[in-house]
Automatic annotation (TrEMBL):
This is Ribulose-phosphate 3-epimerase. Keywords: Carbohydrate metabolism, Cobalt, Isomerase, Manganese, Metal-binding, Zinc. Its EC number is 5.1.3.1. InterPro entries: Aldolase_TIM, Ribul_P_3_epim, Ribul_P_3_epim-like, RibuloseP-bd_barrel. Pathway: Carbohydrate degradation. The active site is at D33, D173. GO terms for biological process: pentose catabolic process; pentose-phosphate shunt. Binds 1 divalent metal cation per subunit. Catalyzes the reversible epimerization of D-ribulose 5-phosphate to D-xylulose 5-phosphate. Substrate binds at S8, H64, G140, F141, G142, G143, D173, G174, G175, G195, S196. GO terms for molecular function: D-ribulose-phosphate 3-epimerase activity; metal ion binding. It comes from Streptomyces misionensis.
Length: 228
């Protein structure tokens, strides 16, 4: 299974987003953190910026909505040009309906869990999703320390994906770096968001390559990645 590296532009220079997108050429997706200062105590960007960024780069956009009322707003991010839209289950009134709407509009539908939200109650929803995001920090800010107490949840989520024979991607976000990415991959993650570890590096494209190499090696050695 191929691993994917998604640099988070939260740690980029917001005045130079088009250049910052080019600085991570080779990345699979650009991770765009949308925060509304209600669901999380921080404010970033919205639909108009996503629209402009989608025009400015060929790298597909992975929009992570840390907002209240995603049922109302998420479809607009698909229209703005996002190829994947992640909503938080804690904020969604009707997650199944919302995932179906995102898919119907032509994007990948993804659902995120905050650290204190378990995966088990959502087992039956997994077939409705293209990706599940297990947050490895409390959402809201870049540069926080990785919560390794999330590793068992990543493992259990990977087991559920296997149990149901799904193609679902498993994303981790928060504190992912050279020091933590291998543990995430071994536990079962295959899509890795990295903000400060990429944009804080001297050469962001190089950081993407290095993270990918680490994640690939760790995935190759992981039991969940075996076909037999
Ligand atoms: C945090 C955001 C992350 C953030 C990660 O709430 O969802 O995407 O950019 O930043 P790092 O990789 O620095 O922890
Ligand atoms: Zn994020």
């Amino acid at each position: 299974m191929a691993v994917q590296i998604n640099p988070s532009i939260l740690s980029a220079d917001f005045a130079r987003l088009a250049e910052e997108a080019k600085a991570v050429q080779g990345a699979d997706w650009l991770h765009v953190d949308v925060m509304d200062n209600h669901f999380v105590p921080n404010l970033t960007l919205g639909v108009p910026v996503v629209e402009s960024l989608a025009r400015a780069t060929d790298t597909p956009l992975d929009c992570h909505l840390m907002i209240e009322d995603p049922d109302r707003w998420a479809p607009q991010y698909v229209e703005a040009g996002a190829s994947s839209v992640t909503f938080h289950v804690e904020a969604a009134a009707a997650p199944v309906r919302l995932a179906r709407e995102i898919r119907a509009k032509g994007a990948r539908a993804s659902m995120a869990l905050k650290p204190a939200t378990p995966i088990e109650p959502y087992e039956d929803l997994l077939p409705e999703l293209d990706m599940l995001l297990v947050m490895t920090v409390e959402p809201g800010f870049g540069g926080q320390a990785f919560l390794d107490i999330m590793l068992p949840k990543i493992r259990r989520t990977r087991e559920l994906i296997g149990k149901h024979g799904l193609q679902l991607w498993l994303q981790v976000d928060g504190g992912v770096s050279a020091a933590t990415i291998e543990r995430c991959a071994e536990a079962g993650a295959d899509v890795f968001v990295a903000g400060s570890a990429v944009y804080g590096a001297k050469d962001p494209a190089d950081a993407v390559r290095a993270l990918r190499a680490q994640a690939e090696a760790a995935t190759a050695g992981a039991s969940w990645a075996c076909d037999h």
